Amino acid sequence: MKKFKLLIIITIVAFSNIVYAQSGINSPYSRYGLGDLHGENVNAQLQGMGGISIGMSDPTLVNPGNPASYGAFDTTAITFEAGIIGRQVNLRTNQLSETSRGATLNYLLVGFPVNKWWKTSFSLMPYSTVSYNVEIVVDMSEYNFSNIQNLLVGSGGINRINWGNAFKIGKNFRAGIDASYIFGNGSRSSKIYFLDSLNIYGTSVVSNTRVSDFIFDYGFQYDVHLKNKDVLTLGLIYANQFSISAKNNYLASTTTGGFYDVVEENVDTIDYRPDQKGGLIVPQRLGFGAVYKKPGSYLVGADIEWQEWSKYAAFGIPDTLQNTLRISVGGQYLPKHTNISSLFKRMTYRLGARYEQSYLKVNGNTIDEFGISFGVSFPMKKSKTAIDLSFEVGKSGTLKDNLIQENFFNINFGISIQENWFYKRKYN
Fold first, then answer.
1. CB 349 within 8 A of CB 44
2. Please, what are the domains in the chain?
3. pLDDT tens digit string along 212-221?
């Protein structure tokens, strides 16, 4: 109970301070589409295994990556999980380099049984993030004209609250559904200044989009029991296409100032469109996964996930995004141990890798992402509480055609608390 009260305090503090944005992180590619997509395999344990999630199920793990996995919850326990992510990104071009870093709450998860065949969960996590600040200066000296600065700034993102339910059908089959309420806003601006001339008006274009709607994800898992109590779990996830409600405020104006410490002022309005109603297309998604598990010893698994982002459109206007593909492989190992074994023998060790083809294609170059991860879990003695750490290094983007390459290092910290709330005590 003390652990539960502690987690409630952490949750209240988190909600009072949370803004789902990578504070301090500059990610120029988040300018496009919905921004940087976070996916649903956010758990620190899963991140340590390359993000495999579709075939993963465990009584002590809340896994939003496949809602069918909730069906494996312990029938007498409630599980709480919270996680923080720290991120450092080095941006490189052929001429310049910049490093930014930040940290944010990554997820809050809770799962518990309704009865033996019905389990449920609630979760809060990010859906996408917009965070960039790009300055482009065009040297016009050869034309005997003032330099031109284009400042591109974006912030905000979309969050999601999940209510998940899983149903055990027979001994080996589980089916689940996540009902997700997604909400948030993203602001994007483009401003043009003539740096060496106070007599030429600049231009400012600011767009702010707010979204609020429901989407649904479906999942299935089937356990194949092998000899020596080994288990092969096969997983499938699917989400159909949704059009989520959105409103957009658009303002284009001529300006003075905004540079050299001169306050920016609007001179005239070019175009103003307040509270435009429309929709954003979230395309269909399909994924397969498999995990081979030797209980109490090790597991290995792999995922492949596809999403049809070529169908994306915002307010009825199609974008030039491409379909995404994610491939993840990973596993974990738990040495043989007893309750009095050393900490190193009671720890769980994880390793994984992932490749993602993002929905961006810039100047004919696909903006791919690759990461290698490893992680550990520290179990607490005489309890079902664990501290989870995972680390990931990788890169996205390219230096070709004067584009930007992002080299990143992520640290995921998570805590998992399990309490027996539904156990009936027996007295002799």
1. no
2. 2-420 (2.40.160.60)
3. 999 999 999 9
Q: Beta partners for 130?
A: 156
> Residues 5, 387, 128, CA angle at the centre, nearest 5°?
85
Q: What is d(CA 376, CA 48) in angstroms, rounded to the nearest whole number?
A: 8
Q: What is the DSSP string of 295-358?
A: TTTEEEEEEEEEE-GGG-EETTEE-----EEEEEEEEEE-----TTS-HHHHSEEEEEEEEEEE
Can you give the pTM of this predicted structure?
0.89
The average pLDDT across 109-118 equals: 94
Cα 287 to Cα 305: distance, rounded to the nearest angstrom = 4
The torsion angles phi and psi of 394, rounded to 5 degrees, stand at 180, -170
CB-based contact 418:79 (threshold 8 Å): yes
Distances (CA, A) of 101 to 41, 311, 399: 22, 33, 21
- Note whether 159 and 184 are within 8 A (CB): yes
Q: Which uninterrupted H or E stretch holds 78? A: strand 77-92
Answer yes or no: is pLDDT of 177 > 70.
yes
3-state helix, strand and coil shares in percent for the chain, rounded to the nearest 5: 10, 60, 30
Do 341 and 379 contact (CB within 8 A), yes or no? no
| CA–CA gap between residue 319 and residue 373 (Å, rounded) | 32
What are 127's two structure tokens?
Answer: 């859906």
